[in-house]
Design brief:
391 residues, alpha+beta, OB fold (Dihydrolipoamide Acetyltransferase, E2P), 6-stranded antiparallel beta sheet, 6-stranded mixed beta sheet, elongated
Length: 391
């Protein structure tokens, strides 16, 4: 990859190791580059119609984020999912259109066909949208597993394709060899450590070499490493170069990294396929709840049947009734609940919020007169064969 002297994306150094002072410079460079990118991103374009495109994209993104916050605050799970999916699909479609080309090729940015750059976010969006739409038909648990399985498969296929493209790009350098002298190192922050308290600095040696009468400065962008960088400044080594793109060089094959990427990709693919195969066994019998900014939302009630009741009551002879809460009153550390059948029940104070006025309660009573037990109708649904008595 071509080395540019006029970018803050990375820092040029002649020191193979990175001390604290140099780390601080790398961090500051990264901040300056981010500010520069934000400034260029918001700067008016020529011709004028490009401004409409640019600011429309920004408005759609900010609007979608605001909508997701609103839907999450109001416990509208479907709204969050539809907005999230729509955002990815919209950006996938937008990515298919021609955009302004960047002058500089920078490390850490996949060189993939435009169609793939648009297809990936669209597939991610569809992997959220389709299960969300079909959740009431398939069941919420099955829809969630299907969505997760799709994400595993999409991620696996992307990294397989990306790794293959890197291998193809590297193989193009096998046709010609030149002697390159190490003149220093590019250093930058590792994007994988962005959530860490201590940012990791990675780097690669920059080589100067000649080909067809011209002098080039480049580095192998897929060979960024931590620790002490090699070779030493001033040392010369043999470089493989791509004659169609002399800035594309290779001196380390990184076979281990390629194998690891393939192994992890196929593991992810196997997990995704395995989840799809497991789908027939998935149901909502245990209930489904999700967290939102507004609190927990129950998408599906847990199921209880005669077998579950028998496991608690130790008998198959029981009655089951459905009643509503009329009122509650505190009595010491307990709460007295009055039900629509005229009976009263004592519950722990910690459960008071569940027994609000009008809440439905299933009461199970064994025929032998032993202690009964209850299921809150907000959380449970009876699917057994006994006749439910309403009162």
């Amino acid at each position: 990859m071509r080395y540019y002297e006029d970018t803050n994306y990375y820092y040029f150094s002649t020191e193979p190791s990175t001390d604290e002072l140099e780390r601080a410079i790398v961090v500051e460079n990264s901040k300056e580059y981010f500010k520069q990118m934000m400034s260029e991103g918001l700067r008016p374009e020529k011709p004028a119609y490009m401004n409409i495109v640019k600011y429309s994209v920004l408005a759609v993104f900010l609007g979608a984020v605001a909508l997701m916050i609103f839907f999450s605050s109001t416990k509208n799970v479907a709204g969050v999912l539809y907005t999230f999916a729509g955002l990815f699909i919209a950006f996938g479609i937008f990515a298919l259109f021609p955009s302004k080309k960047t002058v500089q090729d920078l490390p850490g940015r996949a060189k993939l066909p435009r169609v793939l750059g648009g297809a990936i976010p669209m597939l991610i969006g569809l992997a959220v949208l389709i299960p969300a739409v079909m959740a009431r038909v398939w069941g919420f648990s099955k829809a969630m597993v299907a969505g997760g399985a799709s994400w595993f498969v999409i991620a696996a296929l992307f990294f397989i394709f990306y790794t293959v493209s890197q291998i193809v790009r590297q193989n193009k350098t096998s046709g010609h060899t030149v002697t390159g002298k190490c003149i220093g190192y590019v250093k930058m922050l590792d994007s994988d450590s962005s959530n860490s308290s201590v940012r990791t600095v990675i780097g690669a040696p920059v080589f100067e070499y000649s080909y067809s009468g011209e002098t080039y400065k480049a580095f192998q962008d897929d060979n960024m490493r931590t620790g002490i960088l090699k070779p030493a400044v001033g040392e010369s080594i043999e470089l493989n170069i791509d004659t169609s793109d002399p800035y594309n060089i290779c001196y380390k094959k990184n076979t281990g990294a390629r194998v690891f990427a393939f192994v992890m990709s196929f593991i992810a693919l196997a997990v995704g396929i395995g989840l799809f195969c497991y789908l027939p066994n998935v149901n909502d019998d245990q209930g489904v709840s999700v967290g939102t900014m507004g609190g927990q939302v129950r998408l599906a009630k847990a199921k209880f049947d005669d077998d579950l009741i028998e496991s608690y009551a130790k008998t198959s002879d029981f009655t089951i009734g459905y009643y509503t809460v009329i009122s509650t009153s505190e009595q010491g550390d307990s709460v007295i609940v009055e039900l629509s059948n005229g009976k009263k029940r004592t519950i722990p104070a910690s459960d008071k919020d569940k027994y609000y006025d009008g809440a439905g309660v299933y009461i199970v009573k064994p025929a032998d007169g032993s202690g009964g037990f209850s299921f809150m109708a907000d959380e449970w649904e009876y699917t057994g064969s006994h006749e439910v008595q309403y009162g």
